[in-house]
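PROTEIN FOLDING TASK:
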Amino acid sequence: MKNAKKLIFILVLIATFVTNFAYAARIKDIADIKGVRRNQLVGYGLIVGLNGTGDGKDAEFTLQSLTSMLEKMGVTVKTDDIEKAVDNVAAVMVTSELPPFAKSGSRIDVLVSSIGDAENLQGGTLLFTPLKGADGQVYAVAQGPVSTGGFSAGGKGGGVQKNFPTVGRIAGGAVIEREIKTAFSEKKRLTLLLHTPDFTTALRMTEAINKLGYAQMAQAEDSSTINIDIPENYTGNIVKLITMVEGLEVTPDAVAKVIINERTGTVVMGSNVRISTVAVAHGNLSIEIKESPKVSQPLPFAQGETVVTPDTEMSVKEGNNRLILMEPGVSIGEVVRALNALGVSPRDLIAIFQAMKAAGALQAELEII
């Protein structure tokens, strides 16, 4: 008997533990550290070596760029002299992202996108292209063969295409030339920014961080900002503290919300959606109209006229779905089961939820996108 009681006690503890932590998420997955982010880079370049699928002669900026590049290399040409060769060249915009704490000499991927009338970038090579940040400084230099991950082929009568051959990627195609200087290890305070601002989630994160043993080192400034004062024994070793904080698990809270996409008929409900007492009935109305011509033709030699009269058949079918009563405070699972019992489609759900919101029975935010 005692062993049975112990077993039941252990099972209750396990069930409680699983219930409390089943929906927990790591802090690193729901928040970012202020200042630790990527920076966008952009540049303008030329891709050469194309098999007649580059920009046409109408792309004047490609001609000007090619002429300017050749002049910098000591080759003096006229724009009219290279109009035929421009089919093998394409002007592109080169974009990339500079990772946080990136060092000089590291390589990053770049994306090239045609801005002219090029048909295909497959087989081309991107020439030396400086990549600049928002401050106008050059942070990386890109160059290398382009991989489109698709193809395009055809003739005068038709063709076939896979993916988008006017956009390509160069794996490790850019070398970082300039670093963004940060005194991260010398910081005295860290700031966490929640992806989805929420006061309850911010408070839970603060309590979880303070349980590390350094009381009140974390304070929630608002629903999206948490400040962490660096303890003295972690000064200069801030990475270890961040690792400990990021690994903490917190159960995020969220507002009750129903998202509706009228274009696709998609309906998404959060777990906190509740319904007040309401009765719902939804019936479909189907009207079928069928028209067929009815021909009346006179007998031979009667000197009459052929008369065509439209014959219309109409049928109306109305759904006889029963009325369903939803009790107050029902969970999302009960809501789904009740609506499924009505046999409604996703687009019918949109009308039902809008009517519930208008009646004040939907205890959730209704957002239509």
